[in-house]
Write the structure tokens for this entry.
Amino acid sequence: MLFNGKTVLITGGTGSLGKVLVRRILSGKAGTAKKVIVFSRDEAKQHAMRLTYLHKKVSTDEAIYRNFSKVLEFRIGDVRDYAAVCSAVKTADIVVNAAALKQVPSCEYFPAEAMLTNCMGAANIVRAIGENGYPVNTVVAVSTDKACKPVNVMGMTKALQERIFVAANILNAKTRFIGVRYGNVLASRGSVVPLFHEQIRNGGPVTITVPEMTRFLLSLDRAVDTVFAALETGLPGEIYVPNVASATVINIAQALIGKRKIKIKNIGIRPGEKLHEVMVSEEEANHCVKRGEFYAIKSMLPELAGTRKEPNALKGEFSSAHRILDYPRTIELLKQHRLMVGDKIELDDGELLR
């Protein structure tokens, strides 16, 4: 089993992805982990997450409660801090780097800060393993579709993060460095669904950029599935991409508004935004293969290309403009993941949005 006897370190573990990762790992369905370490710099989020488990709100509550200090550990620290990274990484078998500055406007105004977290944080993990010989088996970089042909600082720094981890395989042969890249996570703070929920709750208007803008949509569980698939079968230097559909922002807005008398206001494309996102570029399609329900982008570095011959899975770029859900199927997707207005959504900071 994937996590049997393993210590798993999740940087940025109090974020929306981190919390679902912790829940899924501790469920034991992919093996019984020795320990899960949540590493982040926000003590308030850690305290809220700790209380969630102590208050027995998950299926694994009894096991966690009796062995809390042994199974689930919280560490305050920042990926920018090399010493803190060393302290957390040294006992880990698997590292999932979910720590990031991910809000596009924030990164545009503070690019140096984005670089320190998204790039130097990744470099610190690689350095800690390489300089100290820590016996880490696998490192997973969590990336975004905005890293593909990037036009904003967040995407640029995430693209560099991908390359930092891919290249790390060359000088750290005992550790496998792989990545995952996915699109708009439906319930994460800053994504369109919580934003539209808040606007609808306040009576509108619901603001959209342009009606025809498209975004890939996937649930947090699907994002975690991508991490698990990469851990299961990913080869050094590969980046796993989920094969998911997309929707127009106008269909998402109208689906959430329903029959309510709330206006929709077009505000135009904001700085750093694309009309359509790209998950796999035309150039990457030349070395993109199929792995079950996922695509794997193989490294362009010849040392990592290997001799395994696999047919290309794509003939061109994989864009959110290519497989767009119509209005009824957009409603179906939102209902499937309980994301319609009135459903409970837990955001990154623990706030419940209904």
